[in-house]
Amino acid sequence: MMVKAVLDTAFVRAQFAPLADGWVFVENAGGTYVPRQVVDRVQEYMSQTQVQPNWGFASSERATERIRHGKQLMAEFINAEPDEIVFGPSTTMNVYLLAQAIRPWLKQGDEIIVTEQDHEANVGAWRRLAEFGVVIKEWQVDRATGALRYEMLDELLSDKTRLVAFTHCSNVCSIVHDAAALVRKIHDAGALAFIDGTAYAPHFSVDVKALDVDFYVCSLYKFCGPHQSILYGKRDLLRKAANQNHHFITDDNISYKLLPGGPNHEFAAGAVGVADYYDALHDHHFKTRENNFHARLTKVYGLIAAHEERLAARLTAYLNTVPGIQIIGRVPSSDGRLAPVIGFRVAGRSSAEIVRELNKRQIAIGHGDFWAARVIKAMGMTAEEGVIRIGFAHYNDDADADRLIAALKEVL
């Protein structure tokens, strides 16, 4: 098979049944459709092995293996080891449980830095530790652009800083941060680094080892998987974390001590379908097949990023011609990349009214603060109106972009 230099969107779209409904779906930043491979894996688990795993009878053994396989592949997805990740129902819950698990490490007066740009999932749980005497410092954004003020991190870091939590990519400003450089700065200050990669992982390959990050979290349902999240932590740190489950769960049982009740079994098994899907993309586009799933994934993400960047460029080029439009963020950091997520508002127009008109034209889109309320407020907007957000996924094609721009021309 010859290498295809560009993403074959016809092949991609054939994997997603919902794309045949006649709508242009561009609320992908909130969650993507799932391909048939994921549906098949969940259905297979539920129809054949919907039993408690870890027993000796045949169906339980198959269930155990399918769950184990899903965890292994999702660890490989971010270049981690299976015992370094925890499945959870959401990023919000994973961050909350981790914050409570490391709370015993902190004493009154210790400092945690959070950003004003983040989704609340990576802000609220850390802020709650103020109840226990932890000092929360806020890393603020530029009021005009929504970009993090990089010089401010140096001012905030101190010998009392214990952890800095920041987003790999903003879910409304689309700014990708040079995470590796920030982690180095944080480590130099003697603190731990926690990254929320939920808005990053759908568009770019994640390598937690290359980042040298202490903790990393992302949501599978943002990159074509079931509605669950994975939390990564360096092994020694996760072993030290306090048990959040039943009293008899041992400290070295990382998967269970940081997930009360255990994982969603069918979705853990369904995660195998995520790898099935990306491998199908790899084998369709590339002649040779590496043995390492993360290496195959990285090649696929190269095609995905180039395709999504082109669609985002088309849309922003049009929006820049419309009087009264303010595009939110999209100020490249030193990383130089931007996610294909475009948030904007129109002077003198209601975001809600514009979205209603677009919905009438079968454009699936939303508006609001998208749970990044602090950056929306910092830029002088209200949560109720917020911004209109267009989030491309790799299964969007030129026809989607044509219909979207045509609809915008009618409405704006």
Automatic annotation (TrEMBL):
SUPFAM superfamilies xrefs: PLP-dependent transferases
GO molecular function: transaminase activity
Record's keyword terms, sorted: Aminotransferase, Pyridoxal phosphate, Transferase
Descriptive protein name: Aminotransferase class V-fold PLP-dependent enzyme
Organism: Dongia soli
Domain Aminotransferase class V: 24-404
Pfam families: Aminotran_5
Matches recorded under InterPro entries: Aminotrans_V_dom, PyrdxlP-dep_Trfase, PyrdxlP-dep_Trfase_major, PyrdxlP-dep_Trfase_small
